[in-house]
Amino acid sequence: MQHAVGAPLPPHGPGHVPGPIPGHGPATGWDHQSQHPGPPPQSPPPPPQGPPAPGWSDPARQVPAPPAPDTTGHVSLPPGGPVPVPAPPAENGTGTATLAVLLIGPAGAGKTTVARHWAQRRRVPTAHISLDDVREWVCSGFADPQTGWNDQSEAQYRLARRTCGFAARNFLANGISCILDDAVFPDRPVVGLGGWKRHVGPGLLPVVLLPGLEVVLERNAERSGNRRLSDEEVAGIHGRMAGWYGSGLPIIDNSQCDVETTARILDDVLARALKSPPAW
User: Fold this and answer.
1) How many Cα atoms are found within 13 Å in the side-chain-facing hemisphere of 186?
2) Model pLDDT, residue 100
3) Would the pLDDT of 43 be above 80?
4) In this structure, are residues 226 and 138 in contact, taking their beta carbons and an 8 Å threshold?
5) Low-confidence winner among 36-50, 115-129, 152-166 (lowest mean pLDDT)
6) More confident residue, 87 or 217
7) Which stretch of 114-123, 124-133, 203-212, 232-241 has the lowest confidence by average pLDDT?
8) 259-275 vs 111-121: helix crossing angle, rounded to 10
9) Fewest CB atoms less than 10 Å from the CB: which of 29, 73, 122, 163?
């Protein structure tokens, strides 16, 4: 027996209540309880939450990871500013004063050796910064002083001096004294005191180390590499350094003094300079 399309299907027996037609929802009057006595079915429990599969990522469940601990040993530095004029010490010598010193002298004066010795013997942390050492950080393209002074030499000198000044300010900002050494000329503004004062600050204390010419020539002869200059160059530099006489800066003639004695004299000179800073 065939039925027209869309006609209702006949009942399947007495008392039959039509069930839902697939795709059309439940029929009128149908309820689940009358057809299936008992408690209503429960929704199946959610599957257990195990560990996510490798490579799976749920943005909603991601928790920002805590920052990794600092293992680089970084120390936050206070901003390095111009070095102020330090207070006079309350004892003999420079004592525990935090100060910045510029030791000036010609090649062969012993300024680097004296500066390092003075820094090592102080009772408070003190750093030694040699401009020649910083200049030689440049390897390829280094402007060798033996080739004379030119635009490249001046540019590298200015860069080294600025680097030294930056390092000195950072040391001093953290309570570490500094002594710098350089062959500063009194008649040459490019390599003069003005640049050092600009990069370090008004608290910089300059001292001139100027032994006799014979001593300087003898010490220069013991050098090697680009640190050794010709006798003519040494004599010319030494003669120009004599211009510091009458400048008001303290001058130490260490011709007859060993390193220990010169360092002690330097400390006494600096103590007097702290009480009466030189005008420069």
Assistant:
1) 20
2) 95
3) no
4) no
5) 36-50
6) 217
7) 232-241
8) 70
9) 73
φ, ψ of residue 130 in degrees (nearest 5):
-100, 125
pLDDT at 252: 96
Mean pLDDT to the nearest integer, 150-166? 91
How many residues does this entry show for the chain? 280
Q: How far is CA 131 from CA 151, 171, 249, in A?
A: 18, 16, 20
DSSP per residue, 168-186 = HHHHHHTT-EEEEEE---T
**Whole-number Cα distances in Å, 133 to 67, 118, 222, 227:** 39, 18, 18, 10
DSSP string, 243-266: GGTTSSS-EE--TT--HHHHHHHH
Q: Is 103 helix (H, G, I), strand (E, B) or coil?
A: strand
Tokens of 181: 């050494």
Please tell me the distance from the alpha carbon of residue 273 to that of residue 276, in angstroms, as a whole number.
5
Least confident residue range of 59-63, 104-108, 201-205, 245-249: 59-63
Computed over its alpha carbons, how large is the radius of gyration of the chain?
43
**Within 10 Å of residue 170's Cβ, how many Cβ atoms?**
16
Q: Collapsing DSSP states into helix, strand and coil, what is residue 235?
A: helix
The per-residue pLDDT for 221 is 83
| pTM of this structure | 0.66
Residue 120 CB partners (closer than 8 Å, separation 6+): 126
Backbone phi and psi for residue 218, each to the nearest 5 degrees, phi listed first: -65, -45
pLDDT band at 17 (very low <50, low <70, confident <90, very high): very low
Q: Which 3 state secondary structure label does DSSP give 142? A: coil
CA distance 177 to 129: 11
Give every CB contact of residue 227 below 8 A, 6+ residues apart in sequence.
107, 132
Separation of alpha carbons 84 and 98, rounded Å: 10
